[in-house]
User: What shape does this take?
Amino acid sequence: MTRLLNPPRPISLRLNPAGRPCYLQAHPLVGDVQAVQSWLVDMDWWDNPVRREYWRIMLRGRILCEVFRDLDQDAWFLERVYD
Assistant: This one.
């Protein structure tokens, strides 16, 4: 079952020199990751702006997660874990 974290959970995410996620620290989800997909969200700028950089990442080659960086706060969050 896919797990949506609401609210999203703050995490620590390390990026490689190319700016792609390479290491996740979100206990108990910890370890090297491979970036799978990325996209930007920039919406509701007129009311309640949301500016995020999303990534789907594969943890330890078997756990697919969705994380995002809040571009206004420069903070990373875990939003979804796929099974």
Notes: The mean pLDDT is 94.
